Amino acid sequence: MEQTNQSGTIGYSGIFLSCFHDYNSKCVHATPDHTLVYLYSGQQVVEHDGQQTIIHPGECAFIRRDHRILMYKNSVEGQQYKGISLTFKRGVLREFYNRMNKNEIPQNLEIPKDSFFRIEARPDIASLFQSLTPYFDSDVKPTEDIVNLKLQEGIYTLLNTNKIFYPILFDFTSTWKVDIIDFLNENYMYDLTMEEIASYTGRSLATFKRDFAKISDVTPQKWLINKRLQVAHEKLTNGNMKISDVYVDVGFKNLSHFYAAYKKQFGYSPAGKHLT
User: Fold this and answer.
1) CB under 8 Å to 128, separation ≥6 — which residues?
2) What per-residue confidence (pLDDT) applies to 228?
3) What confidence tens digit (pLDDT) does each residue in 161-189 have?
4) Do residue 165 and residue 238 come from a single domain?
5) Residue 65 covered by a domain
6) How far apart are CA 87 and CA 33, in angstroms?
7) Which pLDDT band, with edges at 50, 70 and 90, does 14 fall under?
8) Is residue 198 located within the same domain as residue 116?
9) Where does the chain have alpha helices with state H?
10) Distance CA 237, CA 105 (A)
């Protein structure tokens, strides 16, 4: 995740409260679990499936597991970004499914291909999430029983919103894997851990390392450094950008580290024919 502001995120076994102060944040969102996001204040801009959607306070969005989207979390007109997320792990969904009356489950519904669903403001959604907002400013943590009840309530809310969520939530087939190189080419500039990259591509860390070794002779960390250096070289050679801007754009945190890595890779300093 790339953050440009002071922020805070509190997690409670599947419920996450996020607050971003004064400025904005940009992040790639992808998890191995379905997620329901509610905007309490501020603005959320989501890029998904070649589209852009703006989420306003009081509205919800559902993100399917194993899909990547780009989210901008903005403070607007003095209103801090505050969002609440419910994450539905497979164990929770299986337990819910096992207790259901199977005769009440709609049959022959096709699983939609969409990865993102905007959900308009509704009384049941407002009730669900408004009951969690006090935990933003409180030292009191919800109990495990409360968290579990809220997750159950979230599932019921989705099922009552649209029948298409039945085949989405209760599809327990194997996890869909994102192409590793495609993901890295799109997200090389972000400060992601190997664990996060593995999760974002639908893999465990061990499976990610094993799959990556099949397609590359270098480690994932080395691949990322090489990619950042190559893009930096192209920007400095073909563009009119300053080194002080380029090294940040491609994902380096430290200018001196960038200089050393660049010289080692190309045999000369990035300042050779470029002005800082």
Assistant:
1) 38, 150, 153, 154, 157
2) 95
3) 999 999 999 887 655 567 888 889 988 99
4) no
5) yes
6) 6
7) confident
8) no
9) 90-99, 123-130, 144-161, 165-169, 180-187, 194-200, 205-215, 220-238, 243-249, 255-266
10) 60
Checking if the pLDDT of 30 tops 80, the result is no
Domain count, the chain: 3
Identify any residues that bridge with 8 across adjacent strands, giving them in sequence order. Answer: 19
How far, in Å, CA of 225 to CA of 252, rounded? 9
- Give pLDDT tens digits for 109-132: 888 888 899 988 788 988 998 888
Question: 189 is in which domain, residue-wise?
Answer: 180-215
Cα–Cα distance, 257 to 17 (Å, whole number): 35
Looking up tokens 């559902």, which residue turns up? 62
Contacts (Cβ under 8 Å, ≥6 apart) of 72: 24, 25, 26, 44, 45, 46
Residue type, position 102, single letter = K
> Does residue 30 sit in the same domain as residue 114?
yes
Percent of the chain at pLDDT exceeding 90? 34
